[in-house]
Fold this protein.
Amino acid sequence: MTPRPLIAAAAFALTAFAAPAMAQVERIPSSGGEVIIPGPPFAPAYYEFGYAPARRVGDTLYVSGVIIYRGEGEGTDAAAFEAQVRRGFRTLQMILEAAGAGFEDVAMVNSYHVWDGPNFTGERMEQWEVIRRVRAEFIGEPHSAWTAVGTTGLLVPNGIVEIELVAHLGED
């Protein structure tokens, strides 16, 4: 059984956090491409828990889910959630940039939502509207495909939404 502090460390690596600047990107050759580790905060996900923050295969980039969560002392209302979602999209942006990509390259978004939980007290459509509004700050047109799935929980106990991406990095 994995000790709880290690789970927290791995979850932190792929959750929403603010970093002042892009750290040294690590690239590990893999079949058909490479694993991309954007910097030291992301390394535990790969080295301790065996999953890559991002993996490029040919001209496709797969970005592991970033968990949007309620941090200690943060509220559970829509305003607090909006700041949490923005933090999550900044983390996704860091991962994309480490791979030489941007949100304009994103072809598919998958999101997993804890609609009814203690970390967001709004309604389902209110959660979706906040995500949609923040997404528009980062992702323009043409819009990517998107699948949103409800779930009862995420790896991080105070997680609200997990967002993963698939991006196309080849020529148009």
Q: What stands out?
A: The longest strand covers residues 60-69. The chain has a mean pLDDT of 89. The radius of gyration is 16 Å.
